[in-house]
């Protein structure tokens, strides 16, 4: 799998910004991606050393859509990865500017 297919996008939220202070960065990743593929993709793309990778599968919830007739619609499943870097290393993409 190509590294651009493994890492979909960074997740930039208030909680993830606080995790960045602990050298932990969060990415949306492909559902088929393994921890080893995620580690290799982050190391190659950002030139950093990854210590640990945690993955979380988010199952799409069911929402009701429509004004008069409620139609249940299932949202898409997703997967995110929390990547821990070695002490002293940073990903400059997440730095506040």
Index terms:
97 residues, alpha+beta, Alpha-Beta Plaits, 6 strands
- Morphology call: elongated
Gyration radius from CA atoms, angstroms:
16 Å
Number of helices: 3
CATH topology: Alpha-Beta Plaits
Number of domains: 1
What's the CATH H-level homologous superfamily?
RRM (RNA recognition motif) domain
The side-by-side strand order for the widest beta sheet comes to 1-2-6-3
Brief synopsis:
With 97 residues, the chain is of the alpha+beta class.
Question: How would you describe the overall organization of this protein?
Answer:
- By secondary structure, the protein is an alpha+beta fold.
- It has one domain: 2-Layer Sandwich (Alpha-Beta Plaits).
- The protein has 3 helices and 6 strands, in the order αβαβαββββ.
- The strands form 2 sheets. Strands 1-2-6-3 form a 4-stranded antiparallel sheet.
Task: Write the SSE topology.
Layout (H helix, E strand, L loop, with lengths): L2 H4 E4 L3 H7 L3 E6 L5 H12 L3 E9 L3 E4 L5 E4 L3 E8 L12
Antiparallel strand pairs: 1-2, 2-6, 3-6, 4-5
